[in-house]
């Protein structure tokens, strides 16, 4: 089968794309609205792209009606955000915070979570999350104007928080303790418990 995106409906292209590019880590992002409401939402169009300086990118796409999501509006205005990578014990709450709620309501309360102040940015971080990255917007690249168009939010990580409980004893992060979860196509998610090691040649 071949798919030419130029002659295929956008929702179909989206389904193929998210079915093929798997598994995708999930950024659980806190942002702050101009009126001080803490917004929380998951984004699996997400990854890290370099370490000098440390760079992460995620994409709050345009909604199906072409409007901007709250997260994008907030990062455009404030230029700061915090990313927590989604982990297994909180998978249900991560999913819950994908709910579309009014701009002046917080998904933090909806999911029964709490926040603590960040050190270098104004949006707070989730107290319950084992890892958090405080980020400052470096650039936003707008890739289209229609439904599900990408908006690449490029952020520089200015502070990392890592809970002692997920460390491996040598100062590194132990994947067996962090237990990140990831997103595939449709309603599929996966655990990172089926690990294997390979040494680099
Ligand atoms: C696991 C998961 C991953 C998601 N990934 C994305 C994504 O990469 N980009 C996106 O625009 N929406 C994504 N969504 C949907 C958003 O979380 C959802 O539209 C949310 O309501 C946006 O919130 P906001 O309007 O408060 O920014 C995802 C949802 C889930 C459950």
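^ Assign residues to that structure.
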């Amino acid at each position: 089968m071949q798919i030419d995106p130029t002659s295929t409906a956008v929702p179909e292209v989206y389904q193929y794309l998210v079915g093929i590019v798997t598994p995708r880590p999930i950024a659980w992002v806190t942002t702050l609205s101009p009126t001080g409401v803490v917004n929380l939402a998951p984004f699996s169009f997400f990854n890290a792209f370099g370490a000098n300086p440390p760079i992460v990118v995620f994409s709050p796409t345009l909604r199906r009606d072409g409007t901007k999501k709250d997260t994008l509006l907030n990062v455009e205005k404030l230029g700061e955000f915090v990313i927590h990578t989604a982990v297994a014990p909180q998978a249900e709450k991560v999913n819950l915070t994908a709910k579309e709620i009014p701009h002046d309501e917080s998904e933090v309360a909806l999911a029964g979570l709490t926040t603590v102040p960040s050190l270098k940015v104004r949006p707070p971080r989730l107290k319950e999350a084992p890892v958090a990255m405080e980020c400052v917007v470096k650039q936003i690249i707008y890739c289209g104007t229609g439904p599900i168009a990408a908006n690449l939010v490029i952020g520089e990580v200015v502070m990392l928080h890592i809970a002692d409980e997920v460390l491996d004893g040598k100062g590194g992060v132990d994947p067996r303790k962090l237990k990140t979860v990831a997103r595939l196509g449709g309603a599929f998610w996966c655990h990172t418990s089926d690990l294997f090691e390979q040494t680099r040649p």
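The chain is about 15% helix and 30% strand.
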